[in-house]
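Forum: Protein Structure Q&A
Topic: Joint prediction for protein chains with partners

I've read a bunch of threads here and the consensus seems to be that you should model interacting components together rather than docking separate models afterwards. I'd like to see that in practice. Below is the full input, 704 residues plus whatever partners are listed. Could one of the regulars post the assembled result?
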Amino acid sequence: MSEEKGFGRFSRRKLLKGIAGVPIVGAAWWAGASDTVRKRKEREAILETLNIQASAPPATGPMSGDPIRVGVIGFGGRGEHLCRSLGFATKEWLSKMNENTRNNPVNSELKTFLEQESLNVQLTAVCDVFEVNAQKALKSFNTDSNTIKRFHTHQEMIASGEVDAIIIATPDHWHAPMSIDALKAGIHVYVEKPMTHNIAETYALRDAALESKAVFALGHQHRQTQSFLTAQNVIDQNILGHVSLIQANTNRNDDNGAWQYDIHKEANPDTIDWNLFIGNAPKVPFNKEHFFRWRKWWSYGSGLSGDLMTHDYDRINCVLNMGIPASVMSSGGVYTHNDGRNVPDVMHINMEFPDFSTGSTQKPGKEKGMTLVYSATLGNQFNRSTLLMGHDATMDLSNKLVIYADEQSTRYKELIEENRIDPAIPIYQYDPAISGVDGISSATSKYFADKGLLWTYRDGKRVDSTLLHLREWLNVIRNGGKLSCGIQEGFEEAITAHMGGLSYKLGRRIDWDAEKQEIVPIEGYDLDEVLLSNVERVV
Amino acid sequence: MNYGLSKKHIRALILLRMLVGWHFLYEGVIKLYNPAWTSKTYLLSASGPFKGFFQWLAEDRIISIIDFLNVFGLMAVGLALVLGLWERLGAVGGIVLLLFYYLAQPPFPGIDQTGAEGNYFLVNKNLIEAAALFVLYYLPTGYYVGLARLFHKNEEHQKPLNQSP
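Posted by a regular:
Agreed with the consensus. Here's the joint model:
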């Protein structure tokens, strides 16, 4: 072949060698594009079949108008966090965060706080039985733009005319008495979970909230998690089929997680108003450990059933709206922290919903009923997912949603046989932190999905869910509307928690009478006495 | 421009260039055609001494730029190597990208290698591919097979190899 024969100024050989890469580019491009487009189409086809509407909770209204005057009762760890979400950080916290940022410039806690939305409130009052905590609030929040006063009791704060709303972050045995007093005085209430410490006050608080014009909110900030509306849609579309079992868990393995909080060096009978702390709890002599580690005793706290199961119960109730279980059976013991506590540190609460169904894809009448198993240990922190297990699919519920088809599913039988669905790979994944929706994801995606995230998301931005929850409460106070976690949700949460505690202490099944709206009485026992008795078990 | 290499050496280098180029191009095209793709999860799972930097890159206001630069970078490097044009620039770009991937999840002692598809200590495939690009940087072959052949006026390199000095 002659070198001179060619195209224009290039010889044929030169031209061929020059453009040799072009067909290779074409091949790589075609292979990559066709493969990706094919997978995308398959993914879109499955998403179309599932038709899940991924959506965030609607935004709450404007925070305009006069500032709402808020008082905080209980300025411990949780009280401080709630105040930060309102826009008020202590000097101590700010200087600690400054130091953290200096040591690690990537640490964004301070930046996130400084950039968070203003909720247009004034922090006008504080109540704390521990002098050090109260002084910390006074020193930090008396500024040019804010004046805060200390009140000795919650009654004085409520009657002062200085507050429109209060936040209660005290030990559990004070939640209901303070909430009821405030609601009767027309003061709005945001109370931490569990809503109440015993059965009688659960009814009393419900009556007070229903009779009051003030807005009552329970502090389950999980309600703000972006993925929950999407999870509700998954249930509405019957994607999972009949859910017969839900598992939700607590796994902790450190002192803080086991409520072994630090005892402050300045704590003594002069700096702590012991009688005020005790309130309606059994009278005992001054005891620093009881004061700082109150969650370890039934007298002041509610153990795993009230303290932590309530989070998981409410997360599921938020998606399924299944209400109070027909019966509850608990077991466990003090197995990991035998340190004088009388609330269990390993606990399993089986909640039965025999008449509840999320839907069915099989013969009518074949499927009905569901168990919610809450299982907790304070001696191991292996992450066990929250799983909603249906005949057709399993949903892993966290900030993300991941759904796997079940190999024996009726609904997806054909798709599985055609190899269009692989039960080992998620059929649906919703991660509000990334790009919204992904159909079939890779093994790597699964690996990332397994990692939990601490925040929730709005428009792809991470936001403190406590701030969103407080914002929702302030929005209803300002603009009206409905709360995601108000008195009805709180009633269901509290009764369920108390059933769990009672079952543990009595070593027997506790039933709920839905008609009478009461826990079925047990002969020979006053259930509230059982619940409040400061012993690990009654039977 | 033939570095005293034989025809076999040049062919071997061209093969290496094409393979590395294909890899870059294919990775870029896959991402280009997948609108759901983002490097965010990869960056968030960064480990090792530069973890903080890579997690900063995953922030909302930066991530779209990072994603664009990554896809554009991968394709540009791939095209340069396969087509044989500006391949030295492509090699440098490829080395930069690979070192980023290497440092985001470095196979250093004491750093969790969960998710890696093999066993690595200090050296992994990213580093080896970067080394291959290092070779290609010093031994460009676009003048033999590639668009550089068409656009280069100096014909000396096109002489038969056995005539080289």
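Confidence is low (pLDDT under 50) at residues 435-454 of chain A.
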